[in-house]
Amino acid sequence: MNSIVSKLGGDTALAALHQSQSEEASIPILRQYLRMAMRWRYVILGAVAICFLIGLVVTLLMTPQYTASSTIEISRESDKVTDLQGVERDASIADQEFYQTQYGLLQSRSLSERVAAELKLIDSPKFFEMFDAESEDPAFKLVNGRFAPAGRATRQRVAGEILRKHLSVSPTRLSRLVDVSFTSPDAAFSAKVANVWAQNFIQTNLDRKIQATSYGRNLLQGQLAQLKQKLDESQRQLVSYASHAKIINLPAQSGSGESSAERSIVVDDLAALNGALAQATANRIAAQTRYEESGKAGASAQALSNTAINGLRQRRAELAAEYQRLMTQFEPGYPAADAVKAQIDQLDSSIAKEEGRVSNSQLADYRQAQEQEQALKAKVEQLKGDYLDQRRRSIQYNIYQQEVDTNQALYDGLLQRYKEIGVAGGVGVNNIAVVDPAQAPKLPSSPRLLINLAIAILAGLGIGAALAFGLEQIDEGITDPAEVKRALGLPLLGSIPKVDAAPRDILLDRKSDLVDAYLAVQTNLSFSTDHGVPRAFAVTSTRPSEGKSTTCLALASTLARAGKNIILVDGDMRNPSIHQLGGVANRRGLSNFLSGEDDIPSLLFSMEDLGFVAMSAGPLPPNAAELLTGDRLAHLIGRLLETYDHVIIDSPPVMGLADAALIATRVEGVIYAVESHGIRTNLVKDAIGRLLTANVRIIGSVLTKFDAKKAHYGYGYGYEYGYSYGRKTEAQAA
Predict the structure, then answer these.
(1) Which run of H or of E encompasses 346?
(2) Can you give the three-state secondary structure of 398-452, one letter per residue?
(3) Which of 116, 285, 514, 660 has minimal CB crowding within 10 Å?
(4) Among candidates 628, 257, 213, which has minimal Cα distance to 418?
(5) Does a structural domain hold residue 671?
(6) Which residues pair with 436 in a beta bridge?
(7) How many CB atoms lie within 10 A of CB 235?
(8) Looking at the domain assignment, is residue 267 inside a domain?
(9) Which domain holds residue 506?
(10) pLDDT tens across 136-157, in order?
């Protein structure tokens, strides 16, 4: 039955151990860090205090530094004075490159050395002494209080490096303003350097522009001479070829701001003849039409429009009307009618002659128009031939002409650029200006006490946090009762406060904190089985001196005060301690019974002040484990339970020994004592694992030597309040 209970208890404890590990992993990281900070709060506070003091001392020992700033404006480029399209240039992506270049020029070596030379810092021992720049170099050797002239170049380089080291360039975001700041122990000197630095930067910018303009003018002047010579040669070549090839071109015409290229005279003649030919052709067609119409039946249009013919026709019409009237009255042959008829015939003859004359005139006009058209056609064909011949001769002419035009365009463009550079160089507009000159600061810029102390506090917090984290990783001890179940997977039966006096003396005081704590353990222990407190149980620990013997003594005392008949057996036959607590010799005890003796009463001694009976370990055997492997221990427990209500065994530690596991298999369960702030968690887990492997039922754990002051916030207040409340109330009542 005991083996079945032990197996069930071992399985339950093993499952609880795995569950506790999963619960530990699921704790929010913030709570873990907060608990760690509260546990090592004194370490963190100590690190903060030390860093605070160091920051305070260092700040007070630092030499005050003064920073003066001069504000300048850097435009993208100077305003245009030669371009009429606009005077401001649009911003572009290239602005960033431009400004970064300007910032680099502000911190250039040449500018710093120029400032050092202007302020005469190269020969100033005070300047080098101000910045602790004394060197073993011979250039810094003083002769009659002055530097030697030979090392001037070296001192100029060093002075420039010092100035650049203490200079800062700070562009103002989204603007063209730049702050040029200089820091030194002398406020007036800082302002002077900042102002001179800005002025020299402007001057060097102007010098670079003048040098660039001068170089550009000289270069363009040489190029202009070359292009002028080339243009003249190409023009002479063009004229010579035109004379030789007899190419005559009219000058270009210009009008309304536009100009046309030169044109050939043949083209003009051909265009004029083409116009005349078109007109002659139109005239010939018109004459031909009139002539053809006159040959058709009926009068032509010209005949109809002729005045004489129309008059004759009108007269004939009148006579014809008269003749018709006479014929109505008289017979043909009537003399008056014959006379009218003769007049009509005469008029018809006159009309025919007149129409013939008109027709001959139209034929003459047609032939004249035809001859004129043929002549113009022949002239046009001749001009076409001349034009084609000139086109063939103009191929090389056009090549020469293009060369002349190209040289002329290059020359004009270069001449215009030359004029613009001359104007720009003469104007000398600068794109850099001083906005606010530097003034001597009244207060030092460093050291800043508050900022330094804030940095020191932050550094202390960081160092303290690192130390706390490191100590937390190194220290595997259990500091809080809540960690017992989470880290070990064992139910917590109670937490025992750390005491300085002898445990037996404190147990005699029923109002002591120690007694109250063990009463809580006894109460929790009464719920561990269906019959209350286990009748036979052992108390063990991972290693010696963890408080297991004190736990056995206290539980025996509290159970005895509850009216139980208790016997305490010292099962640690390698390092016994119960006989010392009882004040007796260790001549007879457990080892005697295990060796074969059966007289149990002779092995016992009474602890009357605590109200129970105890059995010492007895003489130390050569090998305690061999005595425990037999059935004598189970037989002893059975006989003792016939007389006593509870048998408590002070078991040896688990690590390194097999005794604890052998004893634990003979009892209902084991109470595991864990030393607070002392034992490593991994060792405790290994020891518990050994017991669980032996199918031992672990009832629960007792956290011994617990110091509430070392626990994080929440436990110190609670335990201190609980343990001292009764005494404080009693003292107040008295």
Answers:
(1) helix 335-427
(2) HHHHHHHHHHHHHHHHHHHHHHHHHHHHHHCCCCEEEEECCCCCCCCCECCHHHH
(3) 285
(4) 213
(5) yes
(6) 71
(7) 16
(8) no
(9) 2-26+476-733
(10) 677 777 777 777 777 788 888 8
Domain closes at, from 410, 436, 462: 436
Helices (H), 121-183: 125-130, 152-165
Are 377 and 270 within 8 A, CB to CB?
no
Whether residues 153 and 214 fall in one domain: yes
Q: Exposed, middle or buried: residue 524 (CB in 10 Å: 0-12, 13-18, 19+)?
A: middle
Counted residue by residue, the chain has a size of: 734
Tens of pLDDT along 485-509?
777 888 889 888 888 777 777 888 7
How many domains would you assign to the chain? 3
State the Cα angle at 12 between 10 and 27, rounded to 5°: 125
d(C-alpha 104, C-alpha 533), whole Å: 85
> Which candidate, 639, 638, 669, places its Cα nearest to that of 651?
669
- Distances in Å between the Cα of 243 and the Cα atoms of 159, 264, 387 are 75, 14, 17
In this structure, the answer to whether residues 545 and 642 fall within a common structural domain is yes
Residue 49 in any domain: the answer is: yes
Q: What is the pLDDT of residues 212-259, one digit of tens each?
A: 666 666 777 787 788 888 888 888 887 887 777 667 666 655 544 444
In the block, tokens 């956290």 appear at 703
Domain containing 521 — which CATH number? Answer: 3.40.50.300
Identify whether residues 494 and 545 lie together within a single domain.
yes
- Same domain membership, residue 126 and residue 10: no
pTM of the model: 0.48
Are residue 491 and residue 636 in the same domain, yes or no?
Answer: yes
Provide the token pair at 112: 């710093």
Whether residue 228 lies inside any domain: the answer is no
Cα–Cα distance, 192 to 168 (Å, whole number) = 15
